[in-house]
Amino acid sequence: MKDIHQLKARLAVLFAEQYFAVLATRAGDSIHNTLVAFAASDDLKTLFVCTPRATRKFANLKQNPSVSLLVHNSSNMATDIRQSIAVTVSGTAEEVPADRLAAARSVYLAKQPHMSGFATSPNTAIIEVTVGRYDVVAHFQDVTILEIQKDRIVQP
């Protein structure tokens, strides 16, 4: 997919339909993967996740803010090879500062209203991932890379 407007529209639909992503964080030589509920900003430049502060992923984020998320729509069927899409999100994570917390929480809860108690708990941090790029794989091997902050598609 080489048209940037079509690609962004496809990402927006995928992110609206999928409630969960796999978040990869790193501490030293150890990589930690965890399932998280997420939400995307309208411009796709930021993703939001919530986590209790007393978790390994939060400690990892504080130590190393470089993260990756995987969002996909496969359903564990043979037809996924032709029909599914998988997106690797590369970005930098940080806890949302107090002056932007209400806006971030609003974006998150618009998609994940069932997470309200969790997202508003004083022990929960809302994390914003500033997305650097999306590696989009469709039809099993059709790879497109979108550098979202520069608003351009680059060759894989």
Outline the structure in words:
This protein is α+β, with helices and mostly antiparallel strands and 156 residues long. 26% of the residues lie in helices and 44% in strands. The protein is built from five helices and eight strands; from the N terminus they run αβββαβαβααβββ. The protein has helices at 4-17, 56-63, 80-83, 101-111, 116-119; strands spanning 20-27, 30-40, 46-52, 66-72, 85-95, 124-138, 142-147, 152-154. A six-stranded antiparallel barrel has the order 1-2-3-6-5-4. β2 (30-40) and β3 (46-52) form a beta hairpin. It is globular and about 45 Å long. It starts with a helix and ends with a strand. The mean pLDDT is 94.
In short:
This protein is an alpha+beta fold and 156 residues long. It contains 5 helices and 8 strands, in the order αβββαβαβααβββ. The protein has a 6-stranded antiparallel beta barrel with strand order 1-2-3-6-5-4.
How would you describe this structure in keywords?
156 residues, alpha+beta, six-stranded antiparallel β-barrel, 5 helices, 8 strands
Largest sheet features: 6 strands, antiparallel, barrel
Find the count of extended strands (DSSP E, 2+ residues). Answer: 8
**Total number of helices:** 5
Task: Please give the share of residues in helix.
Answer: 25-40%
Structural class by helix and strand composition: alpha+beta
Overall pLDDT score: 94
